[in-house]
């Protein structure tokens, strides 16, 4: 191992950029591939331009060691693509091509990701007019030709109350041969708006980065700033964050099980869960006034406290909701007609999940133990989380069952956290951010791992802020499971993933 | 089957009594902001400068909040300066953009549609929801209106899949560059006469993404808006109240 080339550190550390060697590309490449062939996976990979080219940073996660590692190189104009050997980089490289006009030579699937103009004055590698905003979905789609082969195009506007995205199916009769997804419709330019910050508006933009994961993203953002200014929130603040994170998981997981059962026409669970989801959102509102946790998590801690009356109220409500949730969920998991539709549908193999670098519920349902709560906890949360949940079948049932079991685990975690709250400051003021430094933060949101990286300039302002929502990795898994499936199973598969559009598009 | 029935009994009847009965909202809920009266010019300038989303202005010596732009922030610096306070009032929807600008007068809540439109839509309103950069919180809390608790269908209101079947469009999100033409196309596909509803701070004025080069600061000048529903995201009762006012049900 090229250990000398790597900076290895723990989650929460602030890494001075001067300690990070800039490797020549061949060494960078070799070290990265070696790490990935070992036990590392790519948590983040991004560029930051300077006068001499574009700096590339790879953040590697060694989950079972609880460690992170960093690799750094600098490239100009193009570089030999790593994707053929390391498929989990496929989208990260496409992103670099779109943002900085860097061509990953030999990339097998080089298409735009979000359809925005270049971030720097570089030639567009797809030859589009630099003065015009690109047209979303304007790319060459993979096509299958032949008799009786037909193409189905869906979106950007879908049938329900749901975010936009474009899906292209290549079908033979009912059977899907290939699905390609083109996103970017929700692109709001968040990473660009964060540059030069932290600005007063930044935290609100992060709360809405993926609005159903406000807690996940604000925790990740706060951790980055805390690491960069070496401030440690109180155990109490950590506990309130953990409670909110689990409440967010409960609301979404319960909603997802409702949606999945609704999709197979099992209305009792679907309507009970729809109501229960709202009740969990209301618990969040009891905590901070917002059903989506807006305003709760702030750098340095949290903004709302739990007084003893509220603790009692939450405990009471939780025990009622727990019984009702179990009742609603177990009904469907006992029902042969539901199981018949869930089992064996939309199978994702562990190898595909691993190669594509998938995370969260989807990865765990395919047998990959990836959970930042277990591997990369901050602030003594490890004690709270000691029962990682894993399934191995990789089908719709497995994804539902991971959620079901996580729901029950979250009930327990919230109860324990409420019963063992320590006293302490809600929020500790942040100092200035360390200049020329980098911090990485991971937070296991309800969909999976949210990774934020903050990089400061000489004045301690954010020069680059990189966000990886779990959906960024996982949409690729969604396209994999559709291969060979009936197109009519698409809605069910899609609900079993339930990925974020804006989290991908940011 | 017996399991289903017994679970059904335990889960009970859940549809709320709204609008006959006012909803109970969480104690920490932040509703209609109220400007502190008689602030001097210096206090007003400080308040204007402190809001990151340009939701506060000083107009003719009177501090004014743009309820449409406001995100109802828990850590509102304007409130910290003592220049405003959040009430518990969840009713926020208005018919015109100007009505969202609140100084020291009373807030003008949405009025009902005109006679002709009421005759057409009063008992059956089908809406096409369109997310144009919405963060999925606005969308989720509109979806919630379809659950047992709110049961939107009992008011004759329904979200439909095809714009051809719709009487109006309900937009969320700041209108990203990448969704602008899809928004206009969807609007064009709805038969006349039609309604436009802007739901959430983003759709009204760009919300937290105000002035991003990738967004359009909301529907603004793109479409004629009939109903504004403020909030980030609007509480489901705020949205329901607005819809019912429009249909003369409140
Ligand atoms: S709540 Fe937020 S948006 Fe509204 S006035 Fe205060 S700071 Fe501005
Ligand atoms: S108004 Fe707020 S909740 Fe609604 S889409 Fe915008 S950021 Fe999200």
UniProtKB/TrEMBL annotation, chain A:
GO terms for molecular function: NAD binding; NADH dehydrogenase (ubiquinone) activity; oxidoreductase activity, acting on NAD(P)H; quinone binding. It comes from the Bacteria. Transmembrane segments: none annotated. Residues 71-120 form the NADH:ubiquinone oxidoreductase 30kDa subunit domain. Pfam families: Complex1_30kDa (PF00329), Complex1_49kDa (PF00346). Keywords: NAD, Oxidoreductase. The keyword Magnesium does not apply. InterPro entries: ComplexI_49kDa-like, NADH_Q_OxRdtase_suD, NADH_quin_OxRdtase_su_C/D-like, NADH_UbQ_OxRdtase_30kDa_su, NiFe-Hase_large. Residues 263-425, 434-500 form the NADH-quinone oxidoreductase subunit D domain. This is Ni,Fe-hydrogenase III large subunit. It comes from Desulfuromusa kysingii. The lineage of its organism: Bacteria, Pseudomonadati, Thermodesulfobacteriota, Desulfuromonadia, Desulfuromonadales.
UniProtKB/TrEMBL annotation, chain B:
One of its GO terms (molecular function) is 4 iron, 4 sulfur cluster binding. It comes from the Bacteria. Residues 135-245 form the NADH:ubiquinone oxidoreductase-like 20kDa subunit domain. Pfam families: Oxidored_q6. The keyword Iron-sulfur applies. Gene3D superfamilies: 3.40.50.12280. The keyword Metal-binding applies. Coiled coil: none annotated. Transmembrane segments: none annotated. Keywords: 4Fe-4S, Iron, Iron-sulfur, Metal-binding. Its cofactor is [4Fe-4S] cluster. Belongs to the complex I 20 kDa subunit family. This is Ni,Fe-hydrogenase III small subunit. It comes from Desulfuromusa kysingii.
């Amino acid at each position: 191992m090229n250990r000398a080339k790597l900076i290895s550190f723990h989650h929460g550390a602030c890494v001075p950029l001067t300690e990070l060697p800039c490797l020549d590309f061949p060494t960078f490449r070799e070290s990265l591939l070696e790490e990935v062939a070992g036990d590392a996976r790519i948590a983040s990979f991004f560029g930051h331009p300077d006068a001499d080219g574009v700096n590339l940073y790879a953040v590697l996660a060694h989950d079972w060691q609880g460690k992170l590692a960093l690799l750094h190189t600098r490239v100009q104009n193009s570089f030999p693509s790593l994707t053929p050997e390391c498929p989990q980089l496929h989208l990260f490289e496409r992103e670099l091509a779109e943002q900085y006009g860097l061509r990953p030579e030999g990339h097998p699937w080089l298409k735009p990701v979000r359809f925005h103009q270049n971030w720097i004055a570089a030639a567009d590698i797809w030859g589009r007019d630099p003065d015009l905003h690109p047209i979303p979905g304007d790319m060459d789609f993979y096509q299958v030709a032949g008799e009786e082969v037909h193409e189905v195009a869906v979106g950007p506007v879908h049938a329900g109350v749901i975010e936009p995205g474009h899906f292209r199916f290549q079908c033979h009769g009912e059977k899907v041969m290939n699905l390609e997804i083109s996103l970017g419709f929700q692109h709001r330019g968040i990473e660009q708006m964060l540059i030069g910050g932290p600005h007063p508006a930044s935290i609100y933009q992060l709360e809405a980065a993926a609005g159903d994961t406000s807690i996940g993203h604000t925790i990740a953002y706060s951790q980055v700033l805390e690491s960069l200014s070496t401030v440690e929130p109180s155990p109490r603040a950590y506990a309130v964050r953990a409670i909110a994170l689990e409440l967010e998981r409960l609301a979404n997981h319960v909603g997802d099980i409702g949606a999945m059962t609704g999709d197979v026409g099992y209305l009792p669970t679907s309507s009970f869960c729809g109501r229960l989801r709202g009740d969990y959102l209301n618990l969040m509102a009891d905590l901070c006034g917002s059903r989506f946790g807006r305003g709760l998590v702030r750098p340095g801690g949290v903004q709302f406290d739990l007084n003893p009356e509220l603790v009692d109220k939450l405990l009471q409500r939780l025990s009622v909701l727990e019984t009702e949730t179990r009742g609603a969920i177990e009904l469907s998991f006992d029902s042969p007609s539901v199981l018949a539709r869930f089992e064996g549908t939309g199978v994702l193999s562990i190898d595909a999940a691993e190669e594509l670098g998938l995370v969260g519920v989807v990865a765990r349902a395919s047998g990959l133990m990836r959970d930042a709560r277990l591997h990369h906890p901050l602030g003594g949360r490890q004690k709270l989380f000691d029962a990682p949940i894993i399934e191995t079948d990789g089908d719709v049932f497995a994804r539902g069952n991971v959620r079901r079991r996580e729901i029950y685990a979250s009930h327990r975690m919230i109860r324990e956290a409420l019963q063992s709250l320590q006293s302490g400051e809600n929020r500790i003021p942040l100092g200035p951010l360390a200049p020329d430094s980098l911090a990485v933060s991971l937070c296991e949101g309800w969909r999976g791992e949210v990774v934020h990286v903050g990089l400061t300039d000489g004045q301690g302002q954010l020069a680059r802020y990189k966000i990886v929502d779990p959906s960024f990795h996982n949409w690729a898994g969604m396209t994999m499971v559709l291969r060979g499936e009936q197109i009519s199973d698409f809605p069910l598969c899609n609900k079993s993933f339930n990925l974020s559009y804006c989290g991908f598009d940011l | 089957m017996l399991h289903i029935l017994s679970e059904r009994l335990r889960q009970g009847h859940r549809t709320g009594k709204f609008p006959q009965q006012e909803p109970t909202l969480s104690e920490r809920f932040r509703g209609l902001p109220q400007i502190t009266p008689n602030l001097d010019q210096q206090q007003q300038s400080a308040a204007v400068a402190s809001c990151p989303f340009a939701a506060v202005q000083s107009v003719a010596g009177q501090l004014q909040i743009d309820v449409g732009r406001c995100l109802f922030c828990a850590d509102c610096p304007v409130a910290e300066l003592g220049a405003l306070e959040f009430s518990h009032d969840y009713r926020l929807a208005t018919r015109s953009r100007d009505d969202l600008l609140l100084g020291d007068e009373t807030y003008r809540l949405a009025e009902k549609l005109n006679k002709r439109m009421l005759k057409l839509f009063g008992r059956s309103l089908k809406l096409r929801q369109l997310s144009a950069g919405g963060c999925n919180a606005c969308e989720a809390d509109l979806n919630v209106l379809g659950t047992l608790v709110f049961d939107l269908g009992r008011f004759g209101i329904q979200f439909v899949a095809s714009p051809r079947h719709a009487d109006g469009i309900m937009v969320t999100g700041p209108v990203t560059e990448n969704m602008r033409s899809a928004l206009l196309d969807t609007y064009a596909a709805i038969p006349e006469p039609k309604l436009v509803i802007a739901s959430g701070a983003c759709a009204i004025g760009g919300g937290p993404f105000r002035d991003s080069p990738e967004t359009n600061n909301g529907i603004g000048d793109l479409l004629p808006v009939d109903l504004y529903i403020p909030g980030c995201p609007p509480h489901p009762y705020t949205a329901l109240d607005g819809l019912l006012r429009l249909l003369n049900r409140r």
